[in-house]
């Protein structure tokens, strides 16, 4: 730590800081293009020229690039020196030779770094009158629009894409003044973080193609601090809305979570709130009505059913909505849970309880610093930004090990990747635990990869065990916890939870309630079901049972902002505000409670879940306290976190975690050769599945099978197979894939739903000749 | 240039897919393939990617950066006129215009008889002989309009 001077201001710096970094940290602006806090210095743009006084008084001051000049104690730097100013002016004039004068029609206008820098440093007029260099643009897919003529060759895009996000389908082509940033051929960018190019590019080469469809000038956008609802990481976002519609979502830096970047699901998943099927008017028995009539109808049904009632909150519903529903059900003597799949319910609660035992999960910034990790499942699909954090750890030399049943993008960076069938995961985790305890591992070749994993975890100063809850059972969640305990205090534990507020929802649910609820509906003990943001009828494993059981209900009351299978089947439907249209609280995978605020209001009246439940309570003659007091009753020192702050870890009483024997019953009863595995991708999420731009990138619907298993079954690439599950069957083409476990068929979520099977369930395969 | 593509592929065969030597083989593989095909078309880039384990984009980055790798068909003879700083100051830009006029074919394309392609080239390190050119790998300079036309005429008439 030392200090130097910039035009008389004292600038503190940390060892290794360059002048530009230290200045920016101290809020002193030095004009720059190619420097980016996450991507470092390059010295390509020559804009951050500063004058440095020599310590030797006999020598003349020299001009240097601030991004390449290490900070030194006592250095005297001038940004305002004439020599430095002249260089910056020349650089801007030079860049503006080829840059088109198209600001009035450019999507970047108003938040363009080049525009700002030109106004700040450049000459006011262009002297150059010759022809400009021009390029042909590429079609980069539905999410990103390409406009190469605007490029100023700062290399930020490829540095982000190749070096940071580890993608390999965007590059710098050609040379001289014709350097071209693009792909080999037209086609969508493949990296799950490609959307960040829109923010990384200092001018309008890469712009948001979804925003472009319904564009608004950025200064006309209404914004407010929000939290991404598309997974459990809880990235901070800044949605922008205009005229009562949501237009785009951008990154909002959080010092410990998403600092500069968000994933494409977070950036483009927001289109769910503008989807044509989104319910916007209350419906009773299929007919649109007013909120008052819908509430009257719901209250009447609940009274008629004499309070034989149950309710689903949701892992994607905020704390307020879940807690209010639970409070109402408590008053009515009903059952509450946030999960419709009993296995997911137990696994999620088990994970929260495991984290309570072992200590909170590390933040993204901490994950970037680990030097070994064991990953169970596909993180890219279940928590994309944890994937990006692990890519940073990998860049710094961390050894990644993977146990996965279906293909996963992180496998390409893994030192050891073992594909194991879903039902084998528990055995493997237990074996890893044993291997940690054994002094020397027998020289058994078949166990070599397992021994490698143990060696890298034990050799690490700072390791991480992480699993995706959706593809784990409670047993495996505990096995991972046990492994973490066995490895000792240098090992951190984390889980990718199945929803933005799954952690919070688990705190409100108790294990076993999901099965209780299903059985009670099946045998008529529950006559009214309130579903807030959940989709029991569309569940992969239990959907068919729920669809049948719903005939026993006298009313299915649904509150949602998307048109799920359950919402379509609702007797009474309350459309609710989407996440950008209301405020609330999510608890992320670390147990960090973060608030989001309402960004805008639509022309339609759309209350939040908590508001609908409050009103319903009033119509039933049972007034409920407000959400904050309800939450304070449950969590003694709960404070609604202020949107725009970094949030705080929630302190809660320890969960008791009974493991029931029923968890594995479905799997044990079957003896088929094939197991189903969820083949996920980064756009695979309930809300994002209504985002048309992102959904255009959905991988083809196929049955992914490991080559040897396929050969043994007489199948080859392209063979047609008919898959049978309890709820139905489906004909799919076979694709051979090394990333799938032996004896496993990896299929997309919609196929699982149609067949009525969950991850790890048995499946019948029949070859279609 | 000496390695045939087949030889290269055989050498790479025993290397694991992530071995850095695979990537290092990209340029020799391109040179070998170019010797066979004359230039690298999209299919050739895909083949290079397959052999070296690079992505097609990475292979394209290399192929389009190096000026001796051709992504478009070239003539049997190639004249590369340097237009970097020294040569440009000594009249290279006028030479390029003159060459284009003389052979009546745009720079970077092939004359109708397939004999010749004239290209602007990056610095050849022949600043002492500016304006200089590389003619089928042989350095020439200093050039003027007269000597350039004589050179082009000789090449065109050879066939």
Helix content of chain B: 40-55%
Please state how the strands of the largest beta sheet of chain B are arranged side by side: 2-1-3-4
Query: Main beta sheet of chain A, described?
Result: 7 strands, mixed
> Mean of the pLDDT scores of chain B?
91
Task: Describe the main β-sheet of chain B briefly.
Answer: 4 strands, mixed
Assign the structural class of chain A, choosing from mainly alpha, mainly beta, alpha/beta, alpha+beta, or little secondary structure. alpha/beta
Indicate the proportion of strand residues of chain A.
Answer: 15-25%
Overall 3D geometry of chain B? elongated
How many alpha or pi helices of chain A?
A: 26
CATH structural fold name of the largest domain in chain B? Glutaredoxin
By DSSP, the count of extended strands of chain A is 34
Please, could you describe this protein's structure?
The complex is a heterodimer of chains A (769) and B (159). Among the domains of chain A are: 2-95, Ubiquitin-like (UB roll), CATH 3.10.20.740; 132-274, no CATH class; 664-768, Beta Barrel (Barwin-like endoglucanases), CATH 2.40.40.20. Helix content of chain A is 30%, strand content 20%. In chain A, strands 15-14-25-24-23-16-17 form a seven-stranded mixed β-sheet, with helices on both faces. In chain A, strands 29-33-30-32-31-34 form a six-stranded mixed barrel. Chain A has a five-stranded mixed β-sheet with strand order 2-1-5-3-4, sandwiched between helices. The longest helix of chain A has 17 residues, at 82-98. The N and C termini of chain A lie far apart (73 Å). The model of chain A is unreliable at 661-670 (pLDDT under 50). A four-stranded mixed β-sheet of chain B has the order 2-1-3-4, with helices on one face. Chain A: Residues 83-122 form the 4Fe-4S His(Cys)3-ligated-type domain. Chain A: Its EC number is 7.1.1.-. Chain A: One of its GO terms (biological process) is ATP synthesis coupled electron transport.
